[in-house]
């Protein structure tokens, strides 16, 4: 099949157009499946990430509806996880038990808190996910990372201004910590 395409069909504009259309449709289908997976996981785990745009100080966080203690701890960074904060690690919304999910699953959880202070790490994570996308098949990447990618792109980043995102890009750390949540035997 590869010889047929490479030597006979690849120069045909009709075949090239058809192949691009098929790949484009497959990509859209994969993203929609990741969106559905995120939505289902978020519904089961308390509604998905809570995003507080603007200042991340305790007063602003309290005004957004967080209780004073959670707002203070979030502002201090005491509740930070790999990329966001967790409002209640001791009580997962689905199980009512201490949380045991991977940090990539945090993005589907109602305990997930994202503030402007978390943007640099989130952007670094997106860069790491983009690198992994080059190393894995589309099917594996979408299944493993797609729901978290969708949550970050469509539920979190959209709540911030372009200026906030640009500032975060300038402050993002080099290491996204993605390797810390991977099983070593699953790495490419």
Furnish the topology, listing elements before pairings.
Blueprint: H1 2-9, H2 13-44, E1 50-52, H3 58-63, H4 68-76, E2 85-86, E3 112-115, H5 119-135, H6 138-156, H7 162-171
Helix pairs in contact: 2-6, 5-6, 5-7
How would you portray this structure in words?
- The structure is a single chain.
- With 188 residues, this protein is mainly alpha-helical.
- 54% of the residues lie in helices and 5% in strands.
- Strands 1-3-2 form a 3-stranded mixed beta sheet, with no helix packed on it.
* Weakly predicted, low-confidence segments: none
Strands of the widest sheet, in order across it, are 1-3-2
Summed up, the helix count is 7
Number of strands: 3
Q: What fraction of residues sit in β-strands? A: under 5%
The H-and-E topology, N to C, reads as HHEHHEEHHH
Features:
about 190 residues, mainly alpha, 3-stranded mixed beta sheet, 3 strands, globular
Can you describe this structure in just a few lines?
The chain is mainly α and 188 residues long. It is built from seven helices and three strands, in the order H-H-E-H-H-E-E-H-H-H. The protein has helices at 2-9, 13-44, 58-63, 68-76, 119-135, 138-156, 162-171; strands at residues 50-52, 85-86, 112-115.
């Amino acid at each position: 099949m590869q010889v047929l395409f490479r030597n006979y069909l690849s120069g045909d504009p009709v075949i090239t157009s058809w192949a691009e259309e098929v790949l484009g449709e497959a990509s859209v289908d994969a993203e929609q499946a990741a969106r559905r997976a995120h939505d289902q996981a978020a519904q089961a785990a308390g509604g998905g990430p809570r995003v507080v745009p603007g200042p991340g100080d305790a007063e602003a966080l309290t005004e957004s509806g967080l209780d004073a203690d959670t707002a203070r701890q979030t502002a201090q960074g005491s509740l930070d996880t790999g990329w966001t904060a967790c409002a209640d690690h001791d009580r997962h919304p689905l199980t009512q038990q201490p949380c045991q999910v991977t940090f990539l699953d945090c993005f589907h959880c109602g305990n997930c808190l994202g503030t402007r202070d978390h943007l640099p790490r989130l952007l670094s994570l997106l860069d790491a996910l983009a690198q992994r996308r080059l190393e894995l098949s589309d099917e594996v990447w979408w299944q493993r990372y797609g729901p978290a990618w969708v949550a970050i792109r469509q539920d979190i980043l959209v709540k911030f201004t372009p200026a906030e995102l640009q500032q975060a890009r300038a402050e993002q750390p080099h290491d996204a910590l993605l390797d810390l949540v991977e099983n070593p035997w699953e790495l490419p």
